[in-house]
């Protein structure tokens, strides 16, 4: 009996290991075993978080935060960059100040980290590294913003935090204190941070109190719209590494509310009320995507949902949450733009549609589409999960910044 029990345990353990390790990895992705390891680690953590929620220990996002916090690093200066945690307008930021001597004024970046508005921190190892690398490579001041997170805080708190820091930093007295050239400031962010950067750039155009104009915005695989969560990229990549459709729907819905009815409506793409149907033109992929991304997909307009949901949680119809909802007139005048999209990413089509709309509105844009990459790839450039594709994307982004900021 003992032998049989051991054998059964071994079979179960092997099956579980195989389940976690085996993630279908697209053929064109290099270092597939490394990517499979990363994907299976994320999946295992997601399952643990789900179990913690079912047992009533903590909710899913709180559990994921516990895992994410293990990646925290304290602010550490090095020979190239002085690093410190401080506050701008009562909001916590991590400042990266280059030590290289300079003839004139420096460039600057205000950076917003990703993590679905729920996870991440300026001290997460990959974000600390990215900001430090940016500061050193560009000889630039980098302000990395620690905005408040969901589910404790819902939209518009995250937007208001990053906007408040950006506005504070753009004051001429603050810029001159840090030796920054007011004509060379940009906002940037990845994923949810790319969403916030796009929203900040739009809002600044309409803010008469801000005299300093942004030179550029850099949006790394940004989330840009809440209306249609069944775009070709959502259909094709719903189970791809790092960001599944299920998790993105969870991030979006819980950005606005902890009421699960919004998440259920979003999951079945039945959350846009009839009275907001005029907004669908701004995310209609059949008009806004190039042919090679439409493939055999047939456009169907989302089924209209309850007006009550939209009344209770109007945030998902707000362009500060969904920058693609800006009209063409509101896009004109946006600064020089860099958008990175990845082929194997549910958010791919958001970035592609925004790039097309900005181009049509006369905004100078560089759209960098990585056919062999997945969501979050640029975060994997340090430690054991270092990926060649992450370095490649990081270098292209840095090259653009260096030439345009």
TrEMBL record:
A single GO cellular-component term on record: membrane
Keywords, alphabetical: Disulfide bond, Hydrolase, Signal
Record domain Alpha/beta hydrolase fold-3: where: 109-268, 318-378
Residue intervals passing through the bilayer: none
Phylogenetic lineage: Eukaryota, Metazoa, Chordata, Craniata, Vertebrata
Active site: 191, 345, 375
Signal peptide: 1-18
Transcription regulation is among the record's keywords: no
Protein name: AAAD deacetylase
Family listed: Belongs to the 'GDXG' lipolytic enzyme family.
GO MF term list: carboxylic ester hydrolase activity
Lineage top rank: taxon: Eukaryota
InterPro entries reported in the protein's UniProt record: AB_hydrolase_3, AB_hydrolase_fold, Arylacetamide_deacetylase, GDXG_lipolytic_enzyme, Lipase_GDXG_put_SER_AS
A Pfam family per the record: Abhydrolase_3
PROSITE patterns recorded: LIPASE_GDXG_SER
